[in-house]
């Protein structure tokens, strides 16, 4: 999942959190710059995985 977060950030957030506010924030961050979107996706994937 971390690899998907680095390569396709919105897809990773969608798969881990669904279409929520986190997804839309990630789409916006990815459009503003790929690196912020990737960092946010990694953060989302890691925190969602920990809470399970």
What structural category do the secondary elements indicate? mainly alpha
Global shape: globular
Strand content range: under 5%
* Low-confidence regions: none
Give average pLDDT, whole number: 94
The Cα radius of gyration reads 9 Å
Q: What string, H for helix and E for strand, traces the elements in order?
A: HHHH
Give the biggest sheet.
Answer: none
Please give the count of helices: 4
Helix fraction by DSSP (H/I, runs of at least 4): over 70%
Separation of the first and last Cα atoms? 14 Å
Tell me the number of strands: 0
Overview of the structural elements:
The protein is built from four helices and no strands. With 52 residues, it is mainly α. Helix 2 packs antiparallel against helix 3 and helix 3 packs antiparallel against helix 4. The radius of gyration is 9 Å and the shape is globular. It starts with a helix and ends with a helix.
């Amino acid at each position: 999942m971390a690899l998907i977060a680095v390569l396709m950030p919105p897809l990773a957030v969608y798969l881990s959190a669904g279409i929520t506010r986190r997804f839309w924030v990630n789409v916006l961050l990815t459009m503003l710059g790929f690196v912020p979107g990737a960092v946010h996706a990694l953060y989302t994937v890691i925190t969602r995985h920990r809470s399970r």
